[in-house]
Amino acid sequence: MSSEITFEKQNKARMENYYLRNRRNIIYTSLEEIEDTDWFWCPSEIEKFDNLWNEGKPIKEMAQVLRRTETAVFLLSLDRIFKGLIKSREWRIF
């Protein structure tokens, strides 16, 4: 029991030390001001996206087909790439 308490105290001290060392005066929130994008996709849209992606369609064309902004399609592509659900392109995604 005492070893669990000691372990918990050590973890708490590490976390406090980390946050004190890395404390920021200004915090930047990425993508906060994007208002024209949709963050929610239904399964049929994702399936259509995956098919278009696998066909090699550019994001601009995918956005037109999916009736979404290029930003929304780009963000979905990043999400799917990071999850390993689609293959990354050779930096020619547009």
Give a description of the structure.
This protein is mostly helical. The protein is 56% helix and 0% strand. The longest helix is centred in the first third of the chain and has 20 residues, at 2-21.
Structural class: mainly alpha
Question: How much is the radius of gyration in Å?
Answer: 21 Å
Largest sheet: none
Order of helices and strands: HHHH
- Which segments are poorly predicted (pLDDT under 50) over 5 or more consecutive residues? none
- How many β-strand stretches? 0
Tally of helical segments: 4
Average pLDDT taken over every residue: 81
Q: How much helical structure, as a percent, in the residues?
A: 55-70%
The portion of residues forming beta strands comes to: under 5%
Domain count: the total is: 1
Global morphology: elongated
Notable traits:
56% helix; mainly alpha; 94 residues
Write the layout of secondary structure elements.
Layout: H1 2-21, H2 43-54, H3 59-66, H4 70-82
Helix pairs in contact: 3-4
Quick description:
By secondary structure, the protein is mostly helical. It has helices at residues 2-21, 43-54, 59-66, 70-82. It has one domain (2-82).
